[in-house]
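Protocol step 6 of 9: fold each sequence in the batch and record its structure tokens directly after the sequence line. For illustration, a two-sequence batch is reproduced in full.

Sequence one:
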Amino acid sequence: MIVEGEFTFQGPREMVWNLLQDPEVLAKALPGAKTLTQTAEDRFEGAMQVGVGPVTAGAFSVTVVLKDQVAPERFSMQVDGKGGIGFTRGTASVELRAAEGGGTLMKYRADLQIGGKIAGVGQRVLDSASRAMTKQGLEAVNRELQSRLTGAAPAPARSRTRYWAAAALALVALTIALCGGPWQ
């Protein structure tokens, strides 16, 4: 299953990049993420609550390996996840570009395999749910960006390691959302 799209954030690329360094922001924007632990410099393991349509389950374990990291422009990843309702595995990439009017264009593409009960809900349901959930998550991140642009206290600086942990969490959540996740 190929899922791709784009979203324009209403703020500069550097701020979007820095916002993605804040795991608390991502946790608010992408509910269902329970844990994310760095197990190596470029490897993370986590757990999420996952469900799509009538199919629900408990924890969905996920392993993410980050690749091709070029701050603040792009990165890609290998994602493997499994749980009581099935599995997903594949690759995903994200690119941030400056957009007109001071915005930031985010382009994403995921090439995923989905199996188990979660695949049984049908392609139409998965496609519709993934689009809606991805949009909701990205809009939540953009709202936080707008809050910061209009005078909220600046976020504390994060280390590079925390950035990649946060970015991995965001993309794990995005990848799971792309194949059906808990956001409704």
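Sequence two, same batch, same settings:
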Amino acid sequence: MDVHLKELFGNFQHQFGTNTGNGRSALGTLPPLFPDCMMTKIEGVSAAFVKSIYRACSALYISNPWQRLRPHHLFGVVVHGSKPLFFCAHFVGNLVGDPALLLYRSYEDALQCVPTAPPHTLPNLKSVPAAGVLRLTFTSESNLPLPHKKMIKALGVEIIGPKAFPFIDVIFPAANGVNDSGFDLATASYSTPTLDELRWLFACVKAVTQAHPLLQQCNPNGLRGHRALFEEFSQTLDVQWPAEDAKFWEVTSVKITHPPQEHSENQKSSIPKSGDQQVATVDVDGWAVPRQCAMCNKEVSGDSAPRCSRCKAVIYCGHVCQKQHWKDQHKGSCELFKAMMEREEELELKGFNFPCLMEQPCKWLEIVSLHGKGMWRRMCGCYKEHEFGLLPVFPSGAEIEGPWGLASGMYPTDAPLLDHSGAGERTSMILLSGWAEYYDLRGLPMSSPVATLLSFPFSLYHIVTALNVATKTRLAKGKEVVVHYLGPEGELDWIPAFAELPFLLGGSGSLHVLMIGPEVPLPLSGATASAGEKLKLSFVKGLYQDEASSLPSPDVVVALNAGLESYSTWPGALEAIKVQTVAAFFTDFSEPCCANAKQLLRAAGLHISYPVTPNPFRSPVRNQVPSSNIPWFSNGFVLGVNT
């Protein structure tokens, strides 16, 4: 008998460990880890990587996806360049139990667990898939097994709340099946995830933390509560792997969709196999305006511009230039360009009722009846004889018109935003998710092109209220945030557009934006402008590295459409940012521009802590580049250092 009991107890310890925690998770009782299967003991897992996973989990917890999401909301997740270990992500525990993120290996597995009848709070415990479910649960420390507590203490990992201790495991159904009374977690089996599964979880958590706030609720006056519905969503985000795992991938792209979508496999690689001397064949598509060969810069007729038939991104004058370009440059980037082109549709901002492709600035301005009007004059070269910031108030001979040059009701008025709930003026800081929400708040029609210019102040606002926690906190506490805004050009003529920021700030703190750059004209340098008590603008002519020490210390540095690879003065400015150890954010037109920017930032010794991500407040108007079809938008993408 003693031998039999000892064997039973040994089996119990082997499966469950010795912990007696009884916390409730989204799948029932929280299982303890076995004492000899800590994450630090997984082959290939370093302590530093475990700490990075915990930091990512903490960021997810802070973003609180459980506030809006319900168990019937499923997300498709694709981690490019990785084995398809999982397919669906699922947030549970918002109403009952500890909050958790579940990852399913297939859409069919997810459907087994998604609740289909009220109360829609817990997965179907009778149908845990045979392939298992990876589970990230946030719980109290008292519910953790002792070895897990010791690991957390020994590593000093980041925990952001008493009920926010991450617990990662893989749950499998009981070997003896399921009885009629339901799935019994006490007889389930649990295992520690593999290194590949932890990497996949890291990428998923980093991407979904950025993606879920962007969901737009459809029919907000309709279904609410646990049956809330969201518009279809598809976003591809870049996730930077921690330095200790950089040998695996440096940056990976993660596609998040809601609801999950079927993802076709790549038909063929865009890089020829070793020894294959062939290059991609020429494919011809019609174009409305002349294009330019990427190899020789020869102008190509708009209706016969050949392009790489694999990535569809690069324009050539013919097969000879294409073959040479493949050998010299394109062979190493074709696959990356192909991935960028696959995001073309999702980067398009839907819903606007004006032309959203700018082939030539003057032509586009004529189409929208804004050529030569107000602030729009700076969008083309017709007024280049005037320095930035010194456009005449009204063009000679033109009728007197406001800075927007638009009919009443087509541009934001100089009035507070109203609370649609009927409470009158808004007093709190408004956190916007995108253009559609802003247009709705202002009552603007989607035929209004003002987003094209508002992209600059709104990108700044997005950075200080959403991307940078420190400045968001200062504003929430009613304090002033000092912004060093580097390299302004057209913005110096678009100051009226920045006057919308105080209305978004509401009753929160204020902004002091110092615009510093060589293009600031002498008559404007040293001047200040203000919009009430919430926004102060100061102008300084000169290079940032020469002026930074004499300016008020910044809370954040911002450079929009930075073009780090295009200006020889940037290394000095980056050194000034490094010396100040201040958070800095940069926007740029395209992903290749951002890739070049990352190289320069790393060369300057700056750590990229906010990876390249599509900017929700990019201009809705796509620019056509002569030799490339890569998606190109003003303020298209954002990345950050020292955040």
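Proceed to step 7 once all outputs are recorded. Observation for sequence two: The chain has 17 helices and 26 strands.
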